[in-house]
Amino acid sequence: MEAANLSAAATGVALPSGPEASNSSPRPGAVVRSTPGGAALPGREPPFSVFTVLVVTLLVLLIAATFLWNLLVLVTILRVRAFHRVPHNLVASTAVSDVLVAALVMPLSLVSELSAGRRWWLGRSLCHVWISFDVLCCTASIWNVAAIALDRYWTITRHLQYPLRTRRRASALMIALTWALSALIALAPLLFGWGEAYDVVFSTCGAFYLPLGVVLFVYWKIYKAAKFRFGRHRRAVLPLPATVQVKEAPHVAEMVFKARSSTLTFQESGDSWQEWKEKRAAMMVGILIGVFVLCWSPFFLTELISPLCACSLPPIWKSIFLWLGYSNSFFNPLIYTAFNKNYSNAFKSLFIKRR
C-alpha cells in the first residue's frame, strides 16, 4: 500500500499538469540524452536492463498468481453450497479484497515502478484513484485477516456461547465494519485534505497498527485458551502391569487403549477429534497472522517513522517493502485453503470431470 498522502504516490514520477507543448524544445520531465559536447538533446527513454526485465517478469507472475488464486477461491465458495456459511463468508471477503489488490492496485503500482525517474503518462486523476483503491483494498485485506482471527478466537474460547446464528451475525457485522473503516481511511485524506504527517499517521495506524494489535491480542488469548483446554483434557499415564487387559463398557464413549510395558495411555475419540480441529484452527490463525506481520511490518514501520523523523529510505528499499506487503494477498488464500481439505476437494471437482 502506497503512502496515504497523494504526494507520496508520485515520488520520482513526473505528472503532466496540462497540455504538452508541441514545439521541439525539451518538455519538463522528459528524458534527454547528451551529445559528446555535453549538450542535452531530447531523445527516447533508455532501454530497461536485463535485471529490470527479470524483476518485472517476476512481478507480473506474482500479480497473475494472486489474481487467479483468489478468484479460484471466490468461484469455489460461490459454487459449493457447503461454503455458503461462516467462516467461508469471511474468507470470501478476504478473497474479494485480495482480488481487487491484484486487479486494480498491483498493475498500476508496477507502472509506477517502471515510471520512476521517467514520466507518469496515465494522468493525475488516475494516480489519485489508484492511491485511493490502494489504501481501500489493502486496508480491507488486513482487517479481514483480523476478522478471521476474531472468529476463530470466539469459536475456540466461546463455542457454547457462540452458536451458528450468532456467528453469522457477528461475521456479517465484521465484514461491514471492515469495508466501512477501509473506505474511511482511504477517502478521509481526499475529503478533508489533512497535512502530510497527520495523514500518514492516521492511515498507518488505522490500516495496520490497530488491526495488528487486535490480531496479536486475539492470538495470545487463543494460545492461552488452547493451552488451558488441552492441558485440562490431557489424560494421566497410569502405572499398570503389562498383562492387564481393559474392557470398556458399552455405554461409555469409545476409548483407544495402548498397553506398553507398565504404562497405559488412552484418550477419548470425541475429545481428540475436537481438540485436533481446535489445534489446527489455532495453527492456521497463527500462520496467517505471522505471514501478515512479516509482509506488512517493514512497509508500515518506514511509513510511520519517515514523516516523523524527516528521514527517508532509498527508493529501492521502499519498493521492496511495498511489494512484500502486496505479496500478503498471494499468501492469504494459500494459508486458509491449506488447512481445509474441503477446499482441495472442491478445487478438484472444478477441473476434473466426474465419470
From TrEMBL:
<dbReference type="InterPro" id="IPR000431">
    <property type="entry name" value="5HT5B_rcpt"/>
</dbReference>
<protein>
    <recommendedName>
        <fullName>G-protein coupled receptors family 1 profile domain-containing protein</fullName>
    </recommendedName>
</protein>
<comment type="similarity">
    <text>Belongs to the G-protein coupled receptor 1 family.</text>
</comment>
<dbReference type="Pfam" id="PF00001">
    <property type="entry name" value="7tm_1"/>
</dbReference>
<dbReference type="GO" id="GO:0030594">
    <property type="term" value="F:neurotransmitter receptor activity"/>
</dbReference>
<feature type="transmembrane region" description="Helical">
    <location>
        <begin position="200"/>
        <end position="220"/>
    </location>
</feature>
<keyword id="KW-0472">Membrane</keyword>
<feature type="transmembrane region" description="Helical">
    <location>
        <begin position="130"/>
        <end position="150"/>
    </location>
</feature>
<feature type="transmembrane region" description="Helical">
    <location>
        <begin position="281"/>
        <end position="300"/>
    </location>
</feature>
<feature type="transmembrane region" description="Helical">
    <location>
        <begin position="90"/>
        <end position="110"/>
    </location>
</feature>
<keyword id="KW-0812">Transmembrane</keyword>
<dbReference type="InterPro" id="IPR017452">
    <property type="entry name" value="GPCR_Rhodpsn_7TM"/>
</dbReference>
<keyword id="KW-1003">Cell membrane</keyword>
<keyword id="KW-0807">Transducer</keyword>
<keyword id="KW-0297">G-protein coupled receptor</keyword>
<feature type="transmembrane region" description="Helical">
    <location>
        <begin position="320"/>
        <end position="339"/>
    </location>
</feature>
<dbReference type="GO" id="GO:0030425">
    <property type="term" value="C:dendrite"/>
</dbReference>
<dbReference type="GO" id="GO:0007268">
    <property type="term" value="P:chemical synaptic transmission"/>
</dbReference>
<feature type="transmembrane region" description="Helical">
    <location>
        <begin position="48"/>
        <end position="78"/>
    </location>
</feature>
<keyword id="KW-1015">Disulfide bond</keyword>
<feature type="transmembrane region" description="Helical">
    <location>
        <begin position="171"/>
        <end position="194"/>
    </location>
</feature>
<dbReference type="InterPro" id="IPR000276">
    <property type="entry name" value="GPCR_Rhodpsn"/>
</dbReference>
<dbReference type="GO" id="GO:0007187">
    <property type="term" value="P:G protein-coupled receptor signaling pathway, coupled to cyclic nucleotide second messenger"/>
</dbReference>
<keyword id="KW-1133">Transmembrane helix</keyword>
<dbReference type="GO" id="GO:0005886">
    <property type="term" value="C:plasma membrane"/>
</dbReference>
<dbReference type="GO" id="GO:0004993">
    <property type="term" value="F:G protein-coupled serotonin receptor activity"/>
</dbReference>
<feature type="domain" description="G-protein coupled receptors family 1 profile">
    <location>
        <begin position="69"/>
        <end position="336"/>
    </location>
</feature>
<feature type="region of interest" description="Disordered">
    <location>
        <begin position="15"/>
        <end position="36"/>
    </location>
</feature>
<dbReference type="InterPro" id="IPR002231">
    <property type="entry name" value="5HT_rcpt"/>
</dbReference>
<keyword id="KW-0675">Receptor</keyword>
<dbReference type="GO" id="GO:0045202">
    <property type="term" value="C:synapse"/>
</dbReference>
<keyword id="KW-0325">Glycoprotein</keyword>
